[in-house]
Design a protein that fits this description.
Blueprint: H1 3-26, H2 65-69, E1 72-76, E2 86-90, E3 101-103, E4 108-117, E5 121-129, E6 135-143, E7 145-146, E8 153-154, E9 159-162, E10 174-179, E11 197-198, H3 200-206
Antiparallel strand pairs: 1-2, 2-10, 3-9, 4-5, 4-8, 5-6, 6-10, 7-9, 10-11
Length: 212
């Protein structure tokens, strides 16, 4: 581990701590930033050679409070503290959303559904293909339960999991990532380099309805 990396890590930790205090003052009992420490892991995720027509993603919705995240807010958006996703939390705060439904943002195929443990907990990953052939992957982390397994085909708005807290490590919330690089390692949830990651809220807002 280099001195430069140690200095960078300390600086990021201080930034996250300051952010946690600021959010807590504005909204009591809201989650703080995730503290994901899992090492990068090769998942050997494979994209299917052909997507059946009925599972092509022609529209995208939000993963909670479908279709428009009613009753939820983005407690830590993409890029905040080098965050690689969005953290969706119920407006009622705390663990009030523990066990609430998580929905697939679009049609697609589940390519990963495992309990990784550590800071991630249970994770579901879904591969999506839009009409022009482009593929994206959505990742749903800290789940309390998973209702799908790798290989399952899912539809937009289908419940795939429930909101969890990674076995009590955080207030209950959904960590959502959207990636345009398929089969990346699980990652760390935070990084200065965002290559392969997309701003989930921006992506969903610009892909609500697609045409061929």
């Amino acid at each position: 581990m280099t001195l430069r990396y140690i200095i960078y890590s300390l600086g990021l930790s201080w930034t996250c701590l300051c952010c946690r205090n600021e959010i807590a003052e504005k909204t009591p009992n809201v989650l703080g930033p995730d503290t994901i420490t899992v090492e990068a892991k090769s998942d050997s995720l494979a994209r299917p050679p052909v997507f059946p027509k009925q599972f092509i993603a022609t529209a995208f919705d939000y993963p909670v409070g479908k279709p428009d995240a009613k009753g939820y807010y983005n407690a830590q958006g993409f890029g905040l503290n080098y965050h690689l996703g969005d953290d969706w939390n119920a407006v009622t705060g705390g663990n009030s959303d523990l066990g609430d439904p998580i929905y697939s943002i679009a049609n697609g195929q589940v390519n990963f559904a495992e309990d990784i443990g550590l800071g991630w907990g249970k994770v579901v990953r879904v591969l999506h293909q839009i009409p022009n052939g482009e593929q994206y992957e959505s990742l749903y982390a800290h789940c309390d339960s998973m209702l799908v397994q790798a290989g399952d085909w899912v539809m937009r708005g289908q419940q795939i999991a429930t909101i969890g807290n990674a076995d009590g490590q955080y207030y209950a919330h959904l960590h959502l990532e959207i990636r345009d690089s398929i089969g990346m390692t699980i990652g760390g949830g935070y990084a200065e380099d965002t290559t392969g990651y997309l701003d989930p809220t921006h992506f969903l807002n610009t892909h609500r309805a697609l045409t061929k």
